[in-house]
Specification:
This protein is α/β, with parallel strands linked by helices. α8 packs parallel to α9. It binds S-adenosyl-L-homocysteine (SAH).
């Protein structure tokens, strides 16, 4: 078999040493400088691998056998469906090693993309118990020959794999989903059939306020009619007497977006509440809310500490969502301005400000990169700007405005270290210096890394 100009050929079986882990959690081996990516292989391991794809600059291999095992390998991942699910990528790596890996990932991209080397990158802040942390479950339903299935979509397919528990999901949410499945089965409610656009139940969404014990279930249905609706509601209340809210959301479109436009309260409250520290939040069926509230508190405490507020400061919170960070900051600042692009999130932010009797906050709907320059033109000056952008990072125009406005401090909360690194470079070139970077583990057993960075005007 010709190898062309790559050192390995498709279907070849080779033994390699794993040197690194990608940001997606695959092992990396180098063969004469050629990178081979091997899912489920870990750094330090010797492994027998079958080459399954050969591209020009890199290829992929399948792990056949671990010849020499990493000390950090977990032989039997806690979850029995870890291999099929794809929701977690790192259950085969010890939690200690996951934390180190996330710190290393941040250091690597800051150096490579941001050319930032002289900065303290702290060890990742861990969860004391890194399981059962999610406060929201969104589970697709369908019909199979054996009855209703509820689980997760198999990777790259529309096949639903049945699941009765998820170890990173709060037990309350798992319980709600199973109870609804049993009740729906009893009353002959059909799961949604994507191919023919038939059936009733599309998704069951469960939300739990971990600090208040309040629980919501949302039945996402194809049309308004639910067969035996009153019996179903009654049965849910009997089986879960502490449930706060039973809601229906109607999504009649052919789409893989979960929610439709119409939401109806079937029983109980429209909102559940939860708290992060001393701040209270109202959560409706469709509200955005951080999914790991315990670590959210850790992250926001760190952001607040970096903001170093005394009570006299004006602060801007860009990409503020439902105002979580804004309200956290408002406890210590003179005034906080929050800006966010989704109008419903700003409705929630305003409601939450009222709920907490906070009057020193203003929220605006719009693009941060348009609204903040406009505020600047109106003469608004911030002592501190907090940004918490989506994965693609901050818009250039926003970074330019920050550099013009010259706040003493910028606190950057990031869910993507690569765009964080890119944006820190822009700020450093504009007269700022990155002082400290703190990774926080918001999503144990997955490859996601959340980071908060402190940047000061030179
Ligand atoms: N800080 C919030 C949410 C951050 S997630 C919290 O901690 O809860 C990022 C947010 O940025 C999302 O709510 C998204 O809707 C918003 N967003 C995306 N692009 C934006 C833009 N150009 N301007 C303002 N907000 C934007």
């Amino acid at each position: 078999m010709s190898k062309g100009n790559t050192p390995v050929a498709k279907n070849e079986i080779i033994e390699v040493t794993i040197e690194d882990l990608t940001h997606e959690g695959a092992g990396v081996a180098k063969i004469d400088g050629y990178a081979l990516f091997i899912p489920k292989a870990l750094p330090g391991e010797r492994a027998k691998v079958k080459v399954i794809k050969v591209n020009k600059g890199y290829g992929f291999g399948r792990l056949l056998e671990v010849v020499k095992k990493s000390e950090d390998r977990i032989d039997e991942p806690a979850c029995s469906i870890f291999e099929q699910c794809g929701g977690c990528q790192l259950q085969h790596l010890s939690y200690e090693a996951q934390l180190k890996q996330k710190q290393k990932q941040v250091r690597d991209v800051l150096e490579r993309i941001g050319k930032i080397t002289d900065v303290v990158i702290h060890p990742t802040l861990a969860m004391s118990d890194p399981w059962r942390y999610r406060n929201k479950a969104q589970v697709p339903f369908a019909d199979r020959e054996g009855g209703l299935v509820a689980g997760f979509y198999q990777e790259r397919s529309h096949e639903i794999i049945d699941m009765d528990r998820c170890l990173i999901q709060h037990e309350q949410n798992d319980h709600v989903v199973q109870v609804v499945r049993e009740i729906a089965t009893k009353y002959g409610i059909r799961g949604y059939d994507e191919a023919n656009h038939r059936g009733t139940l599309r998704h069951v969404v469960a939300r739990y306020g971990v600090n208040t014990g309040q629980l919501m279930v949302v039945l996402v249905t194809k049309s308004r009619e639910i067969p035996h609706k009153n019996e179903v509601i009654k049965a849910i209340k009997e089986r879960i007497p502490h449930i706060t809210s039973i809601v229906q959301n109607v999504n009649s479109k052919r789409t893989n977006v979960i929610f439709g436009d119409e939401t109806v309260v079937l029983s109980g409250e429209e909102y559940i509440y939860d708290t992060i520290g001393d701040v209270k939040f109202a959560i409706s069926a469709r509200s955005f809310y951080q999914v790991n509230p315990e670590q959210t508190k850790v992250l926001y405490d760190q952001a607040l500490q970096y903001a170093d507020l005394t009570g006299s400061e004006t602060v801007i919170d860009a990409y503020c969502g439902i105002g979580t960070i804004s309200l956290f900051l408002a406890q210590r600042a003179k005034h906080v301005y929050g800006v966010e692009i989704v109008p419903e999130a700003i409705d929630d932010a305003k409601r939450n400000a009222k709920l907490n009797h906070m009057e020193n906050v203003d929220f605006a709907v719009g693009q941060a990169e348009k609204v903040i320059p406009w505020w600047y033109a109106q003469g608004i000056r911030a002592d501190c700007i907090v940004v918490d952008p989506p994965r693609k990072g901050c818009d250039e125009a926003l970074l330019e405005t920050i550099i013009k406005m010259k706040p003493k401090r910028v606190v950057y909360v990031s869910c993507n270290p690569a765009t964080l690194a890119r944006d820190l470079r822009v700020l450093e070139d504009g007269g700022y210096k990155t002082l400290e970077v703190q990774p926080v583990d918001m999503f144990p057993h997955t490859t996601h890394v959340e980071t908060v960075a402190l940047i000061e005007l030179k």
